[in-house]
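Narrative of activities, Objective 1.

The group set out to show that a structural description can be obtained from nothing but a protein's sequence at a throughput compatible with the screening campaign. Below is one input-output pair from the validation batch, recorded exactly as produced.
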Amino acid sequence: MSTMSGTRQAAGSSPIPLTPPGLPEAEGPDGAPLHIALVAPPYYEVPPSGYGGVEAVLADLADALVARGHRVTLLGVGRPGTGARFVAVSDTPAAARLGEPFPEVVHALAVRRAIEALHAADPVDVIHDHTFAGALNAPAFARLGIPPVITVHGSVDSELADYYREIGDSAALVAISDRQRALAPDLNWVARVHNALRPADWPFESAKGDYALFLGRFSPDKGPDLAIRAAHAAGVPLVLAAKCSEPGERRYLEQTVRPLLGPDDTLVGEADAGTKRRLLAGARCLLFPVRWEEPFGMVLIEALACGTPVVALRAGAVPEIVTHGVTGMIADDPAELPAALHRVTALDPRDCRRDAETRFGVERLAAGYEQAYRAVLARRAPVGAGGRA
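Output recorded for this entry:
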């Protein structure tokens, strides 16, 4: 394990009042700067060079919290890339093993040791974990007097909800959408904080190309087959830029997606950061025909930041992010998607960009999480030396 300084330029931000639904006003401690330990998953560096929505959010959150005057230690893998102090839990990201449980568990154990050492040398006020297995550390951190806050990035289906019920009140949970929170209202939620981005990092383009864009990963849940069928029915060229590294994704591509491709479809594979921005900025729309309870969908706000409207199925948090008839078209049935692909061209790209700037900027992200941290700190009982009452 090595400790290194961050290198990513921390952008300044202005505090924006924000009280997400269900988040109580913090009664203390006061507005003193906090020492926040952010925990990243073991699969990609922060920020990621391509795929990695959680890591992208973490990079922006780390820099925004630093800009607000907090001391931030980011525990992750690979190299530093933000303005936060960086602790490398592992030198090598485990991207090739994404989806396997073992890297998550090993990472959680290494994070526990790293935070125990960090806290002994430089007391930590709050731990903010963005991993799945990290919840298993919550009781140990609570015994140290450090309140754990966990952002739930997955869909709280019955199995995942049961997992967090077993964690109980040893960790405060943050939802990334109202829909996610509503699916398991009995969990120990402390806040809802939408994911966010820096709109200035995303190129705005008012003159759009003629293609629709599918961007994400090759999975039945994401609906690339629905995207292809809708584009064919509408007579609209389709570009598919999707992650395809896991065995299930490769199998789905070969067995389901590739046989559907036609002469007007372009398969570009997984897009790096630059390619993603170019494709999003030039598309007539992002096509997002998800079949599952998508808890947020980072690509939705990335498209809006580029001035690109969304055509999506009504599922998960889609109606919470996309305003029907303003920043996109929401269909209730896949049969409605071809018509939506034509109607979406009447929407104004400037409305999409404005919505991203107003609702999904990093200032709101940082303000929401800061309120969550202070609310959790205010609730806990006084602890001994090294903790903050």
